Description:
Bound molecules: iron/sulfur cluster
CATH superfamily: pyruvate-formate lyase- activating enzyme
Largest sheet: 8 strands, mixed
Distance between the termini: 39 Å
CATH architecture: Alpha-Beta Horseshoe
Structural class: alpha/beta
Helix content: 25-40%
Oligomer: single chain
Order of helices and strands: EEEEEHEHEHHEHEHHEHEHHHEH
Amino acid sequence: MAKPHYEGYTTEKHTVLLRENFGSANVYAKNTQSILNQATGFINAYDFTLNPYRGCQYGCSYCYAAAFSPNSNMRQDWGNWVIIKQNAAELLQKELARWYPNNPDKLPRIYMSSVTDPYQPIESKEGLTRQLLEVMLEYAPILILVIQTRSPMITKDIDLLQRFKNLRINMSIPTGSEAVRKDFEPRSPSIKARLNAVQKIKQRIDPLKGYVPKLSITITPTLPTPLDEQEVFINQLKIADRVVIQEFHASSGRSLVASTREEALALKRKYAWWYDNEEKSYQQFKHKLASMLTDIQIMEGKEGFGYE
Length: 308
Ligand code: SF4
């Protein structure tokens, strides 16, 4: 397979044919060699990660996935490009077919997605994530699946989601403050839209006709939520069955580290009231969660990203 060069991000002659714009993003397409990749590190409880796209139009300022960009120019321009893995559905079918003869007594555990958002804006045009769900339903209907997203667009696939017996949806909402969200992840959907999406999934699925998925809200990395907004936010989290928190370590060597991009660090300076004593801010928030959400699982870090 020829090494792809991405027009606009390299001076070399490009070998990838498709380049178009979608919103403000440059869109490329390529065939990939595998679509189920071994899950490691923070999510090593899973067998595979499944990333329909490479790159992410949400371009969150703290995103660690930027480090996996194809080249340094694209890393610098994180959020402004996306690569469609155009053979993803075909590959998934083949790779799932290989799993069962080798693992007759074990369900594959899949985490979708670890370095992209499967419901970023381009999905509304491409429907690639939807195609992957269709393949899973046909070839591995009782696999264990976790979908990690921050997009209300997931509700377009409720008809498919309700057919998965072992599904957890992790809706990412790192802060309860719209002002903070706009600073850290200005291109992402509003907090209200994400909460409404979780509510819609619960309401739309009739337990007599489909499976209601497990629903988590992942406050990860846990961004600042001003004191006067915390109570309202925490009450809104009651629609989930699990809440996951994770400290935001911009410079530590831990596995789930935020990007060290200057933008992210500048934001931390802006929110010094939280970050100057992050441990204390985080612990206070955690205690408030525990005292207000007595009927909901509250988990931290790696443990919270498990399926069970
Ligand atoms: S939505 Fe997720 S993958 Fe996309 S930029 Fe934000 S943190 Fe990264």
